[in-house]
Amino acid sequence: MNSNIHVQENSILFVNVDETTISDQDKFLLNNNSTYVYFFEITTKRASLGIILCLFSIATVFGNTLVIIAVIRERYLHTSTNYFVTSLAFADCLVGLVVMPFSAIYEVLEKHWLFTLDWCDIWHSLDVLFSTASILNLCVISVDRYWAIKDPFSYPTRMTRRLAILLIALVWLASSLISFPAIIWWRIVRSDNVPQNKCPFTVNLEYIIFSSSISFYLPLFVMVFTYYKIYREAIIQTKSLRIGEKQVMLASGELELTLRMHRGGSFPAESTSETLQDFGVGYTNFHNNRSMCSPSVRISKQYLFTANKNFSLSRKFAKFSKEKKAAKTLGIVMGVFIICWLPFFVVNLWSGFCARCIWREEIISGAVSWLGWINSGMNPVIYACWSRDFRRAFTRILCSCCPRRMRRRYQRAFRCKPNLV
């Protein structure tokens, strides 16, 4: 009887232990299944958001890669300004390749970070690095455009390839000093433990003020100042060219010469023709073989010889016009940059003073961050719309796999029109 009871007790104990083991396994599987179900429900509900963010990332990488390939392949794009544009495109491409995808995952999973805390800090530092490099490249481009439009003829001797490479190196060095050492700073000043599965950015006020000033506010001041000076210089030079120059057009209407006219003694048409030929400019009417310059045209001989020594009359206006159009294109780039990045840095600076004062801080911060990153994908679109050089290069690259007949048609279309930008 006792043995039976003992056996029964043992059997009962065995059953109890087995039930406990099964219960723990079920709980473990239930927790894992609930996690998977939770992620599945989130990704299903927010699939449209994930698709949109992924498209932004792909478009950013594709567009900026196209810019880099265009500058490398096309020799007419090998200019100092386009070296800066290539550096800008490289930074923007890395934003789309490294920063955007992880942020897209973080947003779709409702701020649930799947990776380690170390990678969280590295990811934030890479975000600061690439975004700052993009902004500083725009700042250098604005200074470069000011030098070019201030004095188009001395600009090529001043802005050498070596100087351009040096400025690009300084841009990336400054961006690196702001980003990577900041990881140590973040961890020293971090007072609270980071919640599990979260990836917050530092809220240290000193770092926010320092990084925002170097990454945005100082470059913004430089860009606004330089483009104001560009605008003023363009007005002054345009007025001087319009007031001091007249136009002489051939009878065929196909060629137009720009000559500076002065009051003074006239000289014969033969002398005029010789002087114009010294400039390498044809002036003859090929329809009736007679000169278009009559003896009544008054041209300062002294000015013509001075101009012959320094520059071609028609070339000066064309060069200034080209620099003016390039400055206009890059001015549009700067305007889009301000629209995209200003909200982020306002919210970022505000959060350093009073994070609780921002309504739905996580949503607002995510939205303004993506608005800033979208700027990285906008620059190639601006080049394609406003720059004929880049538009032609993009067409040649994208149509390289097209039939030969289609490529010839595009080449003829681009040869028909002058290259102005």
TrEMBL record:
Belongs to the G-protein coupled receptor 1 family. One of its GO terms (molecular function) is G protein-coupled receptor activity. Keywords: Cell membrane, G-protein coupled receptor, Membrane, Receptor, Transducer, Transmembrane, Transmembrane helix. GO terms for cellular component: plasma membrane. One of its GO terms (biological process) is positive regulation of MAPK cascade. This is G-protein coupled receptors family 1 profile domain-containing protein. It is a multi-pass membrane protein. Pfam families: 7tm_1. It is found in: Cell membrane. The chain crosses the membrane at residues 47-71, 83-102, 122-143, 163-188, 208-228, 329-351, 363-386. The keyword Cell membrane applies. Residues 63-383 form the G-protein coupled receptors family 1 profile domain. The lineage of its organism: Eukaryota, Metazoa, Ecdysozoa, Arthropoda, Hexapoda. It comes from Trichomalopsis sarcophagae. Its main location: membrane. PROSITE patterns: G_PROTEIN_RECEP_F1_1, G_PROTEIN_RECEP_F1_2.
